[in-house]
Amino acid sequence: MGEGRRVVCLPGDGIGPEVMQQATRVLIALGIGFQEYPFGGAAIEAFGRPLPPDTLAAVRDADAVLLGAVGGPQWDHLQPRPEQGLIRLRKELDVYANLRPAVGDGVDLLIVRELVGGLYYGARGVREDGVVYDTCEYHPSQVERLARRAFELARTRRGRLLSVDKANVLETSRMWRRVVAQVAADYPDVELKHGLVDSVAMQIVMSPQDFDVLVMENTFGDILSDVAAGVTGGLGLAASASLGDRAPGIFEPVHGSAPDIAGTGAANPTAMLRSLALALEHGLDEPERARSLTAAVEEAMRTAPTPDLGGSATTGEFGDAVLASLEVAVS
Predict the structure, then answer these.
(1) Annotated catalytic residue: which of 120, 212, 308, 320?
(2) Is the peptide bond before 17 cis (omega within 30 degrees of 0)?
(3) What's the whole-model pTM score?
């Protein structure tokens, strides 16, 4: 199992290399090959750009991409910044579907966020009168492909999909709602509802257990996925998968580079290891191993919690606990 698969690891900045080390330990234990390449601030230091050509070429040939974290205050004054390398990487790979699961305390929801359109990629600028603008732009085909991905995912879960928009105000949202409703005709086994983003935000805070799969545009997804993470333990535990129609996908923890704790051994690798589990499931066609790793991480959170979870385990000790549990699960 795992033979011939190629994973590209981008450790990045801050705590990125520390949490990535725990992921590569798991890859070694599973017999899955990988290579590491510079990315983000580390790549700016070495090559003057956050996404060097050799890194992009390696990524294109991979079956899955694992990313640690990017950014830090020492690069905030630069152009391009480390985060711009990530935005370009997503666009280059056309990973339009960002999966953000939120699980815990009776909650099991999945946000499917459009990732390569909307405000972050639309026209922007400053007019002569001083007005600054950012444009939210979507083509119906972008909405349709994301909607189909969301319906397919809902089929594998509890069969309920909530499409989130602001159709009472925004023209892009009215088109969004119309296209999603049209796609729903091909999925009669999935229950579709529509919700306004402000109302849905409140409902996620008050009753997160009521949701199954939610689909939304880029900016709404950026915000609501963090809200969902907050009600299920925080960003430090949240994983993500960014998928296109072809390999590779990008699998990364949601947390930032946390430069304040970098090098202290206090970083919690849960989100990184959960992201690896998503890579095993969605990128490497290893669903059984994905489930085993997820269970091993849950066990380690109980037996070897890091300081943010109220314990005293180091990043490496948490990894030790995961590997010990994983060996039992896969033996």
Answers:
(1) 120
(2) no
(3) 0.90
